[in-house]
Amino acid sequence: MTTVYFVRHAQSDIAVHDDRIRPLTKKGWIDRNLVADFLYDKGIDIVLSSPYKRAIDTVDVFAKNKGLEIEIVEDFREKKSAGMFKDIDFIHYIQSQWSDFSYRLADGECLAEVQKRNIAALNEALVKYKDKNIVIGTHGTALSTIINYYDNTYGLDDCLAMLNIMPWIVKMTFDENGCAGMEKINLFNPILRSDNTRFKVYTNDLGTLKAYKYTVIFARYQDKWLYCRAKERDTFETAGGHIERGETALNGAKRELYDNSSGEFLITKRAPNKGYPNMWECTGGSAVAGDDSITTAIREINEETGLDVRQENGKCVFTMIGENYISDVWLFNQDFNIHDVALQENETIDAKYVSIDEIRCMINKNEFIAFHYLEDLFGKAMELL
Questions:
Q1: How far apart are alpha carbons 139 and 14 in whole angstroms?
Q2: Closest by alpha carbon to 118, among 2, 14, 8, 1?
Q3: Could you give the domains of the chain?
Q4: Long-range pairs for 367-371 at CB < 8 Å and ≥24 separation?
Q5: Percent of the chain at pLDDT above 90?
Q6: What span, in angstroms and rounded, lies between the C-alpha atoms of 70 and 251?
Q7: Cis before residue 190, ω within 30 degrees of 0?
Q8: Residue 263 neighbours by CB under 8 Å, 6+ apart
Q9: pTM of the predicted structure, to 2 decimals
Q10: In whole angstroms, what is the distance from residue 199 CA to residue 191 CA?
């Protein structure tokens, strides 16, 4: 995991029109200490910055305190603006740029250009400094286009809201799948650092955002809302949870709804006299002459657990064909009380319900027989929810 702290510069002297040498104001010079204090215990490995003085000076005090060099990256610079907006309506100009990313003044840059070079520079840094903690000194518009790239709901209103927040920090985490999380941090509120003063709700088509982190599920069944109660809490809540690495938002929702609805796998522990003694497993066994596949599956479940599953609740999810065998893998979706399990002598010595993640953990501890088809089975289980 790579963590990036984007630091929007402290207050600068707008009377100086040259972007590259514009200094911090006296207030900005003092406020940069807020950045140094915040970053002090974050285990920072690398400090990068825009080439502009105000961005460099904002992260400089932290870098010096930690003995880190500041690496200048030209493409992290701020948007090029024409003549410091002489004779134009500044707010109208910003509105025009956010409504059309290709909009520009004659000698300036459009937001699409700013975003393209900043994201390119960021991608290079993520490759060069993989799994490091990185600080990047940046600017308001440049940072806004980076946020927008990973969260396209971030737009004009958000940009206007942070115009006067200087310095400002946005923390992003990245894994092999891209941006895995984002947090906006208000340094001027020592009690609540996250910038949660404004809340908005958007409904986006699945897959349109690049930084999904959590899934929240509102489910109805037979004209009633479905709520769940976690084991460690007494209150009821909607289903939901963290989206796992490499998982889509939809698959995460399916998994969480499955887990929160007590949809777990019933597994059994093999008797000590059998092969793989005292190992946990999924129920299975061999067919006998005259039995078809579904009959064999129902019989094996009954022999090992004493439970009677209904044929209509079963589905053959895939078939494996080897040199000397043909195996059908069945998935049954049926509720049982664990106290109804009747362990069969010389077959099983224990039974319990577990989640997919718990099975994976048991495999890693060599407690569960690692059948090669398990991940395919888990995937099929999610599809059938």
A1: 14
A2: 8
A3: 2-185 (3.40.50.1240), 214-260 (no CATH), 265-383 (3.90.79.10)
A4: 367/279, 367/280, 368/267, 368/279, 368/280, 368/281, 369/276, 369/279, 369/280, 369/281, 371/281, 371/282
A5: 36
A6: 41
A7: no
A8: 257, 333, 385
A9: 0.55
A10: 18
